[in-house]
Fold:
Amino acid sequence: MKRTRICNLFGIEYPIVQGGMGWLASAELAAAVSNAGALGMLSPTGGAGPDQDWVENLRIQIRKTKDLTDKPFGVNIWLEEPRHKELIDTAIEEGVGIVATAAGSPALYTKYLKERGIKVMHPVFSVRHARRGEAEGLDAVIASGVDAGGLLSRDELTTLVLVPQVVDVVKIPVIAAGGIVEERGTVAAFALGAEAIQMGTRFIATHECIAHPNYKQAILKAIDTDTAITGRTGLIPARCIKNKLAQQILEMDSKGVSYEEVMGFIGRGRLRMAALDGNIEEGSILCSSAAGMIKEILPVKEVIKRIVEGYNRIIAALA
Structure:
């Protein structure tokens, strides 16, 4: 697999970035990804207890990751979290060199982070977002398509459509995200002009991910039509596996239930409920639309090895 500007920017061997997957982006997973030559990412909620302070948990996860790897890794900060400034400052204090901000404007902290020597990336969902991010000084943008798992944009552009248009308008590196779980998607992303891929769902189905076995099995059992987008009418849209909770939210969407009522029903514990507690009917099983392509749980190192070797094989065959 060729080296790109992303490899040089982040000091990694392969242009593969792990998504910052909320409760699942813990030290165990981030370190395994980084040790395998890609870029591991932490979340402030990664591995946190139900009542644990997220700022303190982030500090714990950063230190634990440093014990597990001497390779570069980053932190994903959700800017809609009320204590996001504390989280950012914790990452700075602990010497993290890479931060991905999300769910807010890159204007908020890009300059602040870069002045402290930190590389910054941010997800974008349209050409307008990408231009704004570059103007604010981002080191890279993550072009995130509607094929991705988790929280999405209302624009609902697919990765195939979004990535080349973003590549055409910015000079900074573009990371393709959305529905990429193996080597064929990786080759496609690079053909579209991306200089790295970001994967989340494929890394859930690994030995090192702390996801509950029920969550991993739900991904392995998924077929091509098993995901849905909830929250189109009032919430932030999110892609997840169709289960009891997803069906309830879809019904509320169809009835025009208010944002406040839906949020009151969902609460803040639904993601943890599935991810760490294993309640896959009443919790939210966030994953990409490519979940149906994942058929086995593997070590992180093997996932990356297969992508790299498969990529090289496909490129050789096309030559």
